[in-house]
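step=encode ok
step=design start
structure_in=
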């Protein structure tokens, strides 16, 4: 071999670390660093999105926080935290918090559990596509349309009571939307009827991404259907479960359209959630300061719940 030992020596100390070695034994020119012009161009492309977010999200939120510290009189004097003390003194807001918690639990548990069960049962079957279509179709409807359908069913002379009467179950028939907490429960069921569709879609995507080899290996090791589902399928559905539960959590906290069309928060204010109370205080009671305080509290709850949940879930096993 004619190559000398000096040709294989590393570059001398003090040479440019960004330089690339040349096969001929020399050094190529160092990689050019990003200059100011490139940074300005990148900033120019990002500027429209930043401006839109600031204009339509940040600015209204800052104004809402500012307005929540003023009273609702004509002169609107600065009132410090008086609007926030309504959460401790107004029974309607305390009821609203209870209903919001019920909605969070119902909208997280029911769509997630039903979506997973339906996805597993329809993952492989002769009529699976038709079954999935029937479940997913309500998700294509708006919340107001779903409320109109369920209002037809749940009124005192609606379809549900007529069916119960025809079956001789007159004692079970009742005004489903007239008494608390039953009216909140049936509205949560109506919401689950619509929201289960997207959970089914996401879980099906997760199920179809699981390698068949892992299930076959589990079967060869003697694992039954339940053991395969518990120890193989569920762990690999974790990323999808995080998305489904996170979406359900946020939707439960900001539920409005279904409640408003079905009961408008009534009877009285028995079925209000924080989102409905915000609308009622601002536009019906003409108390924008109280409505702004409710909006701020609801925003903080949504952001805090989402951050805590996602941080806890994504930190586990580095998912």
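sequence_out=
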């Amino acid at each position: 071999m004619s190559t000398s030992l000096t040709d294989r020596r590393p570059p001398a100390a003090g040479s440019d670390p960004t330089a690339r070695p040349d096969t001929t034994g020399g050094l190529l020119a160092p990689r050019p660093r990003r200059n100011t012009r490139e940074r300005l161009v990148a900033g120019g492309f990002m500027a429209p999105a930043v401006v839109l977010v600031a204009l339509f999200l940040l600015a209204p939120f800052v104004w809402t926080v500012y307005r929540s510290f003023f009273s609702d009189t004509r002169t609107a004097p600065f009132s410090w935290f008086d609007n926030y003390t309504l959460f401790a003194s107004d029974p309607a807001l305390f009821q609203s918090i209870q209903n919001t918690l019920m909605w969070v639990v119902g909208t997280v548990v029911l769509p997630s559990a039903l979506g997973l069960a339906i996805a597993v049962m329809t993952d492989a079957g002769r009529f699976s596509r038709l079954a999935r279509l029937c479940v997913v179709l309500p998700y294509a409807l708006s919340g107001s349309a779903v409320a109109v359908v369920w209002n037809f069913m749940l009124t005192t002379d609606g379809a549900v009571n007529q069916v119960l009467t025809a079956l001789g179950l007159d004692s079970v028939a009742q005004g489903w939307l007239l008494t608390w907490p039953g009216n909140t429960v049936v509205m949560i069921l109506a919401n689950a009827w619509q929201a289960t569709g997207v959970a089914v879609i996401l879980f099906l995507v997760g199920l179809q991404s699981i390698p068949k080899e892992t299930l076959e290996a589990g079967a060869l090791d003697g694992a039954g259907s339940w053991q395969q589902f518990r120890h193989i399928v569920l762990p690999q559905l974790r990323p999808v479960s995080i998305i489904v539960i996170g979406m359900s959590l946020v939707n439960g906290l900001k539920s409005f359209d279904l409640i408003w069309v079905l009961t408008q928060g009534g009877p009285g204010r028995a079925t209000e959630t924080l989102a409905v109370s915000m609308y009622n205080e601002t536009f019906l009671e003409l108390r924008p300061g109280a409505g702004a305080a409710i909006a701020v509290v609801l925003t903080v709850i949504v952001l805090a719940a989402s951050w805590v949940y996602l941080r806890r879930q994504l930190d586990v096993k580095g998912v």
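step=design ok
step=annotate ok -> The chain has a mean pLDDT of 83.
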